[in-house]
Design a protein that fits this description.
The protein has eight helices and eleven strands. By secondary structure, the protein is of the alpha/beta class. It has a single domain, classed as Acetylglutamate kinase-like (Carbamate kinase), CATH 3.40.1160.10. The structure holds uridine-5'-diphosphate (UDP). The site of uridine-5'-diphosphate has 23 residues, from α3 and α5.
Amino acid sequence: MKYKRVLLKLSGEALMGNQQYGIDSERLEQYAMEIKAIHEQGVELAIVIGGGNIYRGVQAEASGIDRVQGDYMGMLATVINAMAIQSTLEKHGMYTRLMSGIKMEAVCEPFIRRRAVRHLEKGRIVIFGAGIGNPYFTTDSTASLRAIEVEADVVLKGTRVDGVYTADPEKDPDAIRIENLSFDEVISKGYNIMDMTAFTLCQENNVPIIVFDMNKPGNLMSLMSGQENVGTLISN
Ligand code: UDP
């Protein structure tokens, strides 16, 4: 495999599948099988999952809820998704640990960096729930930060499109996928990969990001095998 230790970021919205809300069990199953395939090859895997399918902090203000309160609600939403993924991975025989940025002993361990690294070394899949535990951040920032903390080789950002395109591939048939970009090019060309906090954390700490379509079966395995026909690699 091309990378030994990876941090996989999945958006909460992707878990909805074709539903309007919540968690689609078929999508969960599909993700579990994709993850199992690379894990069986000896890849050390950490996962950060978003919460957008259940709640986003920015929604809060519109409904008259305090923003910070809303952000905590968003963080709790990520724990629900993380528990769903944990359960599905375990059903398929993988060993997992859920570590939370907010203390919640009944359902998960607190995030302790050294312990997270130990789990990874032992081949357990570590799922990071509750973001970094602070409001005004996103799960993309969580992915970058945790990747740096556990010394992951790369952040794999699973999205609905297979990387960065020269134009919007859903609107322009001539749009082509860009294989490699530097962090500086992403900024100068205005491509929207992650929020700036998440993005600069990776840039400054030299952690490459691969943007790829997690919903296309086999894609995760292809990019981990080093095939160049998948996703866009962003590096220094
Ligand atoms: N959130 C937060 N701090 C964090 C991570 C998440 O406050 O460290 C909140 C924030 O309100 C965010 C919500 O949790 O909107 C859900 O996460 P996100 O929107 O990143 O999920 P995704 O878009 O990936 O589904």
